[in-house]
Amino acid sequence: MAVYTEVADDEMAAFVARYGIGELLAAKGIAEGVENSNYLLHTKQGVYILTLYEKRVKAEDLPFFVALMQHLADRGLNCPVPVRDSRGEALSRLAGRPAAIVTFLDGLSVKRPSAVHCAEVGRSLALLHQAGEGFGMERVNALSVPGWRPLAEQAGADADKVSPGLAKRVMAEIERHERSWPQGLPSGVIHADLFPNNVFFIGDKLSGLIDFYFACTDAFAYDLAICLNSWCFEADASFNLTKGQAMLAGYESVRPLIQAEVEALPALCRGSALRFLLTRLVDWLNVPPGALVKPHDPLEYDRKLAFHQRVGDARDYGLKR
Ligand SMILES: Nc1ncnc2c1ncn2[C@@H]1O[C@H](COP(=O)(O)OP(=O)(O)O)[C@@H](O)[C@H]1O
Ligand SMILES: N[C@@H](CCOP(=O)(O)O)C(=O)O
């Protein structure tokens, strides 16, 4: 359960009262998530999500996230919309943390995605990339190549306690990407964390996208690589080509990839596996005492990385050209 910051009942009620969303009836810590503290709010007017932003979210980035959700929602994407308080502000502070209330989205995330789900995600990812056009703000991806070495250094030799030889394996990967990371690809707003837990479905139809707190300005194909990693592998770390095909076809039904993106896909998949291996590794080694959180397994991404190391070209992910 990801609740790092507890909020006293009277403090919570006074906070919610400023938003004109009706009297607070109940506030429950949410069991999912690892990054921020999330509460489900029931008020006399409806259901909302309260987020208290924790360690990895920098306060100066919050205006970007809030404006982005509003921009995407205004363009028809079903994502949370920030609720404004009586002064018109979406961002505030609660229990010593930056905080915001956003609208609640209906739908369920899938634990075992099918090829149909993968196709839906591919299509929605491309729609998100298109909807981001014209967004006036930029945010550098803090978790792209320059951010990886500091994470590896933070883990240090303790990485080998998680898996023998991991520290050396990780450093070799970082050096490879520092030398030859794909440049000049089509870029814009990317979600950068569109894992199954951040996508809602009603039946087989994708109904909404949440958790824009890693969103940034980066290569669209890198976002696709993140999704191939998080949606198209089986529990035994084998890549499911049918799911890969479905995701890529779904994406290209909206936004066809250019040749440079096709050629870059293996490096982007390999790099994005490393990125999640690194953040998971650091989190695994640094669970805050008393925090109600279950850290994700870093070795899941070590196994995915091993697959990418054997890949020849984008056809190995299911691209049919
Ligand atoms: N706008 C929303 N509508 C419905 N449920 C939400 C919304 N935002 C978050 N949640 C719920 O809270 C959980 C954690 O949210 P998430 O943003 O993924 O947390 P974190 O960024 O801390 O990992 C989600 O899995 C979902 O169940
Ligand atoms: N998706 C990341 C962790 C971030 O968690 P989220 O709940 O904010 O999506 C991972 O799986 O490592």
Automatic annotation (TrEMBL):
Pathway: Amino-acid biosynthesis; L-threonine biosynthesis; L-threonine from L-aspartate: step 4/5. It holds the Pfam family APH. Its EC number is 2.7.1.39. It is an enzyme of class 2 (transferase). The keyword Kinase applies. Residues 28-257 form the Aminoglycoside phosphotransferase domain. It catalyses: L-homoserine + ATP = O-phospho-L-homoserine + ADP + H(+). Keywords: Amino-acid biosynthesis, ATP-binding, Kinase, Nucleotide-binding, Threonine biosynthesis, Transferase. InterPro entries: Aminoglycoside_PTrfase, Homoserine_kinase_II, Kinase-like_dom_sf, Pseudomonas-type_ThrB. One of its GO terms (biological process) is threonine biosynthetic process. It comes from the Bacteria. GO terms for molecular function: ATP binding; homoserine kinase activity. Belongs to the pseudomonas-type ThrB family. This is Homoserine kinase. It comes from Bosea caraganae.
